[in-house]
Design brief:
Length: 380
């Protein structure tokens, strides 16, 4: 392996975040408490949402979103095949069946025009994924969901900062789920959250993230001992104070960090537009793209070769994603085969994600652009 000239990702945890996490570590109380409550309050305000509940992952948030609305065995949930497997795995964890939907070629997002055909008597929910940081057509998805009585849970792991058609992330969904995993726009290594409008649902989610117990550890620590009960069977998905402390400052900087990613994405677009054999993903009108990932598509069947050559040039790359329905477990479990979701498969075989993060320098973007042009010319 050659030495990396340009890393695929660098996080933005700074000295102030480390100081805040250090203060938690020096305190007596490490798990879900004051910092988590403060982060939840900031996140709620950032999103313009009624409630936010901190979790250990976006996968857990998606799972509990389904559980909170009573979705389980016998139910079907519509999900895009072009996503990270967490989206459909959460449906499996709830005991429901993921029903895959193909993508739009231009954006990679789930094709909302295909939803109606997939809805059966068993369909209870739809999970739109705001792929690469670009929001799905939430107005259309909400209309279809209302007409057919579906719950909408947004997978916003890529899209903390997005907007489209005057709609914010999480605004039209019944819930929206966020990830603070190591490579996401703000991170605590692992972490997640769910936003909801309904206060009773927020209470249910707070209980479900902690075994279904009716009091949190914070209550037991800060107040006089009282017996607790467990009215529901829950899970163990509660965010802790160390994670929250790392996230509070990053969330304050999130808009500025996003603006920097947007500027870098524009540099990429200017440098790669019109290069032979290359397709760029499109941004829909009236969209504020949160630019979580910058992906290019190489036409034909040369992707893996180009991917390898870029790495030889010292460029960090990734593939987001190979379609979920063709992963071994899903093939074996449901009998999917190539050709079932042709657009998702095409994107899955063509896509390459390039480095994109606020610490990336303009000069490094030019290095990557040069490498892409060179490799494509040599292997095109
Ligand atoms: C990262 C990611 C997830 C899972 O997030 P975790 O916090 O790691 O569970 C879910 N969906 C998408 C689209 C993701 O990229």
């Amino acid at each position: 392996m050659t030495r990396k000239k340009v890393d695929f990702f660098k996080h933005n945890i700074g000295p102030e975040d480390i100081r805040r996490a250090g203060a938690v570590l020096k305190s007596i109380f490490l798990t879900t408490g004051a910092e988590v409550a403060a982060f939840e309050n900031s996140l709620r305000r950032f999103l313009g949402a009624e409630h936010a509940v901190g979790m250990t992952s976006c996968t857990g948030a998606l799972h509990l979103g389904l559980e909170a609305w009573g979705i389980g065995p016998g139910d079907e949930v519509l999900v895009p095949s072009m996503s990270f497997c967490a989206t459909s795995n959460a449906v499996m964890h709830a005991g429901a069946v993921p029903v895959f939907v193909d993508s739009e070629d231009a954006t990679g997002n789930m094709d909302a025009g295909l939803l109606e055909k997939k809805i059966t008597r068993r369909t209870k929910a739809v999970i739109p994924v705001h792929l690469y940081g670009q929001m799905c057509d939430m107005r259309l998805i909400r209309r279809i969901a209302d007409r057919r009585g579906l719950i909408v849970i947004e997978d916003a792991a890529h899209c903390l900062e997005g907007r489209r058609d005057g709609v914010r992330v999480g605004e039209l969904g019944d819930a929206a789920c966020f990830s603070f995993y190591a490579t996401k726009s703000i991170t605590s290594g692992e972490g997640g959250a769910i936003s909801v409008h309904d206060g009773r649902m927020a209470d249910t989610l707070r209980s479900l993230r902690h075994h279904g117990i009716d009091k949190g550890a914070g209550d037991r620590y800060t107040k006089l001992y009282r017996h607790w009960d467990m009215p529901l069977l829950g899970w163990k998905y509660n965010m802790d104070n160390i994670q929250a402390a790392l996230l509070i400052g990053q969330l304050e900087r999130a808009r500025a960090l996003c603006a920097r990613r947007r500027a870098l994405a524009e540099l990429y677009e200017r440098g790669l537009e019109g290069v032979g054999g290359l397709t760029l993903m499109r941004t829909a009108p009236r969209t504020t793209h949160s630019r979580h990932l910058f992906t290019i598509r190489v036409r034909g069947s040369r992707r893996d070769k180009i991917l390898l050559e870029l790495q030889r040039e010292g460029i960090g790359v990734a593939v987001n994603y190979r379609p979920i329905h063709l992963l071994k477990y899903y093939r074996q479990r449901f009998g999917f085969k190539p050709g079932d979701f042709p657009v998702a498969e095409k994107i899955g075989s063509e896509t390459i994600s390039l480095p994109l993060y606020p610490k990336l320098k303009d000069a490094q973007v030019r290095t990557v652009i040069g490498a892409v042009r060179r490799v494509l010319a040599a292997h095109g």
